[in-house]
Write a structure and sequence with these properties.
The complex is a heterodimer of chains A (74) and B (193).
Chain A: E1 2-3, E2 24-34, E3 37-50, H1 51-55, E4 61-67, E5 71-72
Antiparallel strand pairs in A: 1-5, 2-3, 3-4
Chain B: H1 8-23, H2 31-41, H3 45-57, H4 59-67, H5 69-74, E1 88-93, E2 98-103, H6 112-115, H7 125-133, H8 135-141, E3 151-156, E4 161-166, H9 175-181, H10 184-188
Parallel strand pairs in B: 1-4, 2-3
Classes of the chains: A mainly beta (74), B alpha/beta (193).
Chain lengths: 74, 193
């Protein structure tokens, strides 16, 4: 999966450091309302990113929880 | 900075914002009260410690905890309820080769129901920005040095999940003694026990 690179004027919970990054879905964690529109309920996934993918260095991983609409399948 | 702290203005602003959120249908009139009640009556690290100690002495509980923590903690009379929205608890277990640490880089999400209010440093920009980039040096600041072959995963709580770390079992002792050995930083992942 890749996180979207969009930069909307509202808060959408994909941290800036993880935008446009390649990661692997590790878990479907449930259905939750979008933070900027609670009338829309979407699947949310935990996505695991290697630090090198995010920051260009590091041997650790970082996981981020992302609403489906902000993920692109590869 | 003045020595006088008049909170009348912030309180009025808060009431105004609360009214707007309710008027726009973004917030149910009782949601904030429920959340504040839960916060005030809320947890302390003793609850997280009970959960960890039970997981160390009961393999079945440990399995259920790692699979579906919300249900497992209810076996101990604990609950993740009380938030603005239902919160999912995810417990991530350390091992001989894996270490976990939690953060909320966007704000300060924290498993309050299990750990009580978060420490000030957890909400600091320094911790939030550094731990995702260089967790090993942040852990070193806490006096925690991991062997080089231990892989680190940083869990950034960016939706409705609250993370808690299950540390490695520190000793072969009865459950109550184990619970007394658990520290808040151990459950956050900035310390080992």
């Amino acid at each position: 999966m890749r996180t979207s690179r969009q930069d909307p004027p509202h808060h959408y919970r994909v941290p800036r450091y993880a935008r446009g990054a390649l990661g692997v879905v590790v878990e479907h964690i449930g259905e939750h309302p979008l933070p900027y529109d609670r009338s829309v309920v979407e699947p949310v996934f935990t996505v695991r990113f290697p630090a090198e993918q995010l920051f260009g260095s590091g041997t650790h991983d970082v996981t981020v929880d992302v609403w489906e609409t902000h993920l692109e399948a590869l | 900075m003045s020595d006088e702290h008049d909170d009348a203005a912030p309180a009025a602003q808060t009431r105004h914002v609360e009214g707007l959120l309710e008027a726009k249908g973004l917030l149910d009139a009782n949601e904030l009260d429920r959340a504040l009640e839960a916060f005030a009556s809320g947890g302390s690290p003793a609850q997280g410690a009970r959960v960890a100690a039970r997981a160390w002495v009961d393999d079945g509980f440990r399995t259920r905890l790692l699979m579906k923590a919300n249900d497992a903690v209810e076996e101990l009379g604990l609950s993740m309820g009380g938030g603005i929205q239902p919160q999912r608890l995810k417990v991530v277990a350390n091992s001989a080769t894996e270490h976990n640490v939690i953060v909320c880089t966007l704000c300060s999400c924290y498993p309050i129901a299990m750990l009580g209010p978060s420490p000030t440093w957890y909400k600091s920009e320094a911790y939030r920005s550094r731990v995702v980039r260089d967790p090993r040096s942040v852990l070193a600041d806490f006096g925690t040095t991991l062997p080089d072959d231990v892989h680190i995963t940083v869990w950034d709580a960016s939706s409705e999940t609250r993370y808690m770390v299950l540390p490695n079992k520190p000793a072969e002792l009865p459950e109550a003694d184990l619970a007394a050995m658990v520290t808040r930083n151990g459950l956050i992942g900035t310390a080992v026990l």
